[in-house]
Amino acid sequence: MTSTNAVHVLGIGGSLREGSQSERALRIALGGAAEAGVTTELIPGPELVLPFYDTALAERHERAVRLVEAIRRADGIIVVSPGYHGALSGLVKNALDYVEDLRDDDRPYLDGRAVGLAAVAFGWQAAVTTLDQLRTITHALRGWATPLGGSINSAETKFDEAGGASDEKSVRTLRLIGSQVAEFALSRAGHQ
């Protein structure tokens, strides 16, 4: 739990292309969290350009320090990855590898945090397999994957700059994922 009374949800993801479909999906999910009464923060794909994670190196790039500190402060996390060739992007995977830097914290890794997950890919197969991989990684990092995850086929659903999408069901799903993360974090805050 953060040191202040504010409950904070961090969004991580997207692609290198600013305003990508996966980044727009992440923004919708963060909107759902904010509507549930938490503060939110976004670290989009272009800010996730980091050196490959290496446990042997103590020195960290300034972006890596920002990412790790943001995860450390977060009471909940939302991760959205594009699906590339049936898997999550290397950009998002490398960012999640930096969670290892939290191994010695009082709250190691993603312990005690809800993690909302969604995958956006041009086709159902990559969207579903990417979501499955995100769930596996979340469990390995001791996070609580929300009951609802999102697999979004960008061949059928297009996100717009105004914060919506051509498929209202996808928008509702993403908002619910954000809401589930926020509600879990708020619940834990009330029981601390």
TrEMBL record:
Signal peptide: none
Pfam families named among the record's database cross-references: FMN_red
InterPro entries in the cross-refs: Flavoprotein-like_sf (IPR029039), FMN_Rdtase-like_dom (IPR005025), NAD(P)H-dep_reductase (IPR050712)
Ranges where the NADPH-dependent FMN reductase-like domain occurs: 8-147
PANTHER family in the cross-refs: CHROMATE REDUCTASE, NAD(P)H-DEPENDENT FMN REDUCTASE LOT6
UniProt protein name: FMN reductase
Biological source species: Amycolatopsis oliviviridis
